[in-house]
Amino acid sequence: MRVFLQGKKDGHLAEDHGQYAAVFTHMENLVATSPNADIAGRARKVQKQLKDLVFTAFCHFVSDLFGELALLSLKLQANNLILPVAVGSINDCMEAITSMKEEYIPGGMYEKFMNCIEDQQFSNLQDNPKFQGVEMTGSPVCVAKEKLKKHVGSKVDLILKELESRLKNLLGANTSVDAQAVVKSFKYLIMIHGQKVKENFSILEITK
């Protein structure tokens, strides 16, 4: 997700092209040139999705969210890890994720994207804001922020519920924790930013 959204290093989010713009341009070309109606139709749908402000902003939120989970996973793979540190790291991660309901991760991709969009909105009220040269459409910024708050809140709750369910043996701070249960929890955490999360999490849910 981060590679997909990231533009040039120290570049301007609104204008400097990256992978996101490249995918959008490819979809444009498919719509214009594909002789296959099914392919052109799917490309048109993706193109429309990529222009949607709420969808694009939500992708940036997901990137920050997975970043917190990936950081936790790396901490729990440390060779010198002990149980109290593991529990503390899990709690810190859950607190950071919980805070995302009300505020951005400082310096995160979601914060930078929303600041870029809002700056454009205030400086030029007539034109739609852009991301990597792609014009953002759909909801006005003020409406999009309300929609995003709802979507972010529901996904944060989903992730926290999943973490609590999978890690209840560690989070219970019980001295008689079963060793096999602890090992199982650690295996899950190492995979947490991969397939396990994807089973119950879909970015496209916000468009339904």
Helix percentage:
55-70%
Number of helices: 10
Give the biggest sheet.
Answer: 2 strands, antiparallel
Overall geometry comes to elongated
- What is the subunit organization of this protein? single chain
**Number of DSSP E strands:** 2
Average pLDDT for all residues: 83
> Low-confidence parts lasting 5 or more residues at pLDDT below 50?
192-204
Arrangement of strands in the largest sheet = 1-2
| Residues in β-strands, percent | under 5%
Compose a concise summary of this entry.
The protein is mainly alpha-helical.
What does this 3D model show about the protein?
The chain contains ten helices and two strands. The chain has 208 residues and is mainly α. It has one domain. The chain has a two-stranded antiparallel sheet with strand order 1-2. The radius of gyration is 20 Å and the shape is elongated. The two termini are 21 Å apart.
Write the layout of secondary structure elements.
Layout: H1 2-5, H2 19-33, H3 37-51, H4 53-75, H5 83-99, H6 109-123, E1 130-131, E2 134-135, H7 141-166, H8 168-171, H9 179-190, H10 195-198
Antiparallel strand pairs: 1-2
